[in-house]
Amino acid sequence: MIDPPTEITTVMNPPWNVCETTELLLYYCIVKGEQGIPYMGIDLTEMLRSWPYDPEQNLRIVSVEDGRQVLQVRLPLGIEQYELDGRPDGKRPYDKESFVEELQDRVAAHVAHYGSDAEFDLGHQECVELHSEGMLFYYRYLLLFQLNDFERVTRDTDHNLHLCRLLEKYCSNEEDRNAVLQFKPYIVRMNAMARAMISIQNEVRDVARKVLANAIEEIESLEEIESPAFQFERIRSVNYLQSALQQIDEEAVGPTQELEKELQRAVDEENYERAAEIRDRLRGIQ
Predict the structure, then answer these.
(1) What are the domain boundaries of the chain?
(2) Helices (H) and strands (E) in the chain, counts
(3) What is the pLDDT of residues 238-259, one digit of tens each?
């Protein structure tokens, strides 16, 4: 099994717009506090006691009242909740599954009206909304990777790759564009890792190898961005994917093949006693 990326073991700070309950409580505490009115809020102590914080066991999927399942994360001072499908915060911008889908529809409408997307351009506020949505999906797919839910990791990283393509094609402001694109090597890497893990689970290692090799090639061919984050992520992602490829190759070699390699080394070194010992082991396996 391929080792997981090291960064998924770190719990990030809660993303904005995910814990709406927390935001609501803060709002009332601030407003009522300014008015000098004590706010009688909801005490979360019993809820937190029912699920003590354990950094090794801090994720769970639970069913809620309407029957859907949600992903919950136990943090040192609270609980964070993500929708498993759709946007992680459960919102539907412009009554769409995501803001990426809304912009894709706007591009399609522009093309239908003007015959081309040549004049379509993303404004600053649209880029900010894309960046915020991408962060939500990023937080969720890190957690899903820990749960080995590689199908959903693939879906969420695909979403962020579509987001990157929108910025690459329609954002003329370099600062707005690169705020996200500097992390594209990492997104490509996580997408490839998720798809490779699905292939390994289905025992098609050749497909996994091809997925990882193609991702390495894609990352190496990305347009240069003057950003330390981009340089770091590109080098780290390529190194990690190369390591994953090596693991696949090593695991593909069975005990017989490994012993045959050792036998050849022993013969080349004229270590005939060692060679005889290895031959005996090979006969035992065969």
Answers:
(1) 86-225+240-252, 256-285
(2) 11, 3
(3) 999 999 998 888 776 556 666 7
